[in-house]
Amino acid sequence: MTVRMGLIRKKADWTFEDFDSYWRGSHGALARQAPNLREYWQNPVVDRLQRGIEFARGPWDFDGFSQLWFDDAEQSSHAFNDSGLAADLIKDEQHFLGDLHIATADQQVVIPVPAKEERAKLLKRMSIIKRLPSMSEEDFRREWKVHGDFVRKMSGVSAYRQNVIVARELVKGQPGSYEEFPIDGIVELWFKDVPTLEAAFNSPQGKETMAHARTFLFEITAFVVAERQIL
Predict the structure, then answer these.
(1) For the segment 172-206, what is each residue's pLDDT rounded down to a tens digit?
(2) Which of 36, 68, 69, 143 could make an S-S bridge to 75, C-beta 3.0–4.6 Å?
(3) Would you give the DSSP letter of residue 76?
C-alpha cells in the first residue's frame, strides 16, 4: 500500500494544545472520510531531542506527522486533489495549519509493530533522514535496506519501519523536486521507554548501527511523538 505522510506545523498564533485538540477532533473527523482510506494515524510531536544519537540535525521542525494508507498512489491523489472532500479539507487545513508538506512513501516493515494494546504502551520516535550528497538515490535505498539488519540486532527495539520517499509536495497539490524538499526517508522506531531507547543506541550493537548510518546518511532529525489512531 501507499502511505501519504503530512509533515505539519501549526499556525504561529495557535497554542500547541489548541492545535492538537483541533487536529484530533474536527480535522480528524473530516479527513477520515477520505474515499478509499484504509487507515489513518496522527503523530503529534512531544519531544525534539536527538536522544541516543550524535548526528547532524536538519532544518526541519514540525508539530506533527499524519499517516494515511491507501491501496495505491492514484487513490491517494484522488482523495486529496479531485474528490468531493478535497476542497473542504484544504479549507480546514488553512484554518489551523501554518505549513503542510506531503511525502508519499513506500513502507518496509523491518520489525513488526505489536498489537494495538501493547503498542499504546510504547514510546515512538520518528526521524527524517537525508542521504549523503555524494550518494545516489539507488545506493541510498540499498544501504538503508542493509541498515535494517543492523537495527534488528539492537536489543530493546520493539518495532521498526522504513518509509522510503517516492514523491514530494513542498506545497500540497504541487509535485516538487528533491532539491525543493530534500528528504529521503522517514524512520519509525518504537521502544518501551526513553531509558530503553538510550540503552539500545549506547550498546555495542547500537554503536555499530550508527557507524553504518554514517556511511550513507548526512542528517537525522528526530522527534518523539504520541501516536493515535483515527481510523
Answers:
(1) 999 999 999 999 999 999 999 999 999 999 999 99
(2) 36
(3) H
81 HSE (CA, 13 A, CB side): 14
Residue 151 neighbours by CB under 8 Å, 6+ apart? 110, 111, 157, 160, 189, 209
What domains sit in the chain, N to C, each tagged with a CATH number? 2-229 (3.30.70.100)
Determine the distance from the C-alpha atom of residue 40 to the mean position of all C-alpha atoms in its chain, rounded to a whole number: 13
Q: Are strands 185-191 and 157-169 parallel, antiparallel or unpaired?
A: antiparallel
Predicted confidence (pLDDT) at residue 159 exceeds the cutoff of 90: yes
**What pLDDT does residue 91 have?**
97
145 CA to centre of own chain:
17
C-alpha cell at 3: 502511505
pTM: 0.96
Residue identified by cell 499504546 is: 120
pLDDT of 1 reads: 87
d(CA 224, CA 231) in angstroms, rounded, equals: 21
Query: Are 43 and 66 within 8 A, CB to CB?
Result: yes
